[in-house]
Design goal:
382 residues, mainly alpha, Serine Threonine Protein Phosphatase 5, Tetratricopeptide repeat, 3 domains, 20 helices, 0% strand, elongated
């Protein structure tokens, strides 16, 4: 069975102090006496190499720590680089004595991978898998080395030999994403995609991470790829709409929200109707304001603001703007007051209500609302 690969399980959980490993070497010396100096030399070099590799991993900042050795290239600090080079030197010395020791080859492959020497890592992983063909760990790590070296097909073949599935890698990405380790999460989602390019969820997860990173074009690209495989994801359609809005691509955003409206989901239809109304009101021809009003009223009628309850206050505020524009001042006042009941700190609702009061001849109320508005230092975006 596939087990979640993680560097911690190989190094950090087994990082013994140097003196213990060296003591083992000395103990071996007494045990063997002078009968096998080569074996003694091998064990001492391997033990020292293991210690140096453990210290290299331990010296990497916890937040930057990769979940496989081949993903650490570029995050090593000066201290960890020195440890890795020392590890490679010791492990290569051990390898000269016993070139077919599988454990030493595995440690050497990891040392090469962690320092970015992926070709050398692949060579040693291949030797390890030849010696230990029934150990899935070697094939999994070989796949990681192939992956970072750009050999995607070989990576998939190695992972298949290691009994890895797209769901295993997806779960790793999911866990890392929940920890806000987005770069690491994307890597595992992309590996999930390599194994099964016809599964929608990894694409969508990468798209959503790029939304969080405000990489709008990448977000749209991955979300669309996922939705081409399975378009029944309201949240993904909604996030595409939001990304298009950030890029001021109003027609595309409007279309995405219409697609979101077709499906049930966690967003809540009221939030979607609000976005449709807002785009229609402020970025489409002015004569279409009646359509915006229909969208806002439909949002209020559904009353499903699951992910953004403050959007109801905004819906009432923008509806008030439309009513004010039609000189339906009494209705506009009611809409602004309803908005402020839900969110008393809505700066612009106070401002617009003040204007409507002024137009209606209610000067004192207009002044009162204006005074309320200026007490808020950070006005809510209109």
């Amino acid at each position: 069975m596939f087990k979640v690969p993680a560097v911690q399980w190989n190094v950090r959980a087994n990082s013994y102090p140097q003196w213990i490993l060296l003591a083992v070497g000395i103990g071996v010396l007494f045990f063997l006496g002078g009968k096998s100096s080569q074996i003694l030399s091998f064990l001492l070099h391997q033990s020292k190499g293991y210690v140096f590799l453990s210290n290299a991993v331990a010296s990497i900042d916890e937040e930057s720590f990769g979940s496989d050795y081949c993903f650490m290239d570029g995050i090593l600090n000066e201290e960890s680089i020195e440890f890795v080079e020392s590890a490679k030197q010791e492990l290569n010395s051990a390898n000269q004595v016993r070139p077919k020791d599988s454990q030493n080859l595995l440690l050497l492959a990891r040392s090469e991978c962690i320092s970015g020497n992926h070709e050398a890592a692949i060579k040693n992983y291949l030797l390890y898998t030849q010696l230990r063909p029934n150990n899935p760990l070697g094939f999994l790590e070989l796949g990681y080395a192939y992956d970072v070296n750009g050999q995607k097909e070989l990576a998939v073949q190695a992972w298949e030999r290691g009994d890895a599935t797209e769901h295993d890698f997806f779960k790793l990405g999911l866990n890392l994403g929940e920890e806000n380790k987005f770069e690491e999460a994307i890597k595992w989602y992309q590996r999930s995609i390599l194994i099964n390019p016809k599964w929608a969820m990894p694409y969508i997860k990468v798209g959503l991470i790029n939304v969080s990173l405000e990489e709008w074009e990448l977000a749209i690209d991955y979300l669309h790829k996922g939705l081409q495989l399975d378009n029944n994801d309201q949240y993904a359609w909604y996030q595409i709409g939001m990304a298009y809005e950030k890029m001021a691509m109003w027609d595309e955003a409007f279309t995405a929200y219409q697609s979101a409206l077709v499906h049930e989901g966690e967003i809540g239809k009221s939030n979607i109707y609000f976005r449709l109304g807002w785009i229609n009101q402020y970025h489409f021809p002015e004569e279409q304001y009646v359509i915006s009003m229909d969208f806002y009223q439909e949002a209020l009628r559904n009353d499903e603001y699951h992910t953004n309850p403050f959007q109801k206050s905004n819906t009432l505020y923008h509806l008030g703007n439309l009513l004010s524009k039609q000189n339906r001042l009494t209705e506009a006042v009611e809409s602004y007051l309803d908005s402020l009941e839900l969110n008393p700190e809505h700066f612009w609702a106070h401002i617009q209500l003040s204007k409507v009061y002024w137009r209606s001849g209610n000067i004192e109320l207009a002044i009162t609302e204006a005074q309320k508005a200026v007490t808020f230092i950070h006005p809510i975006k209109r």
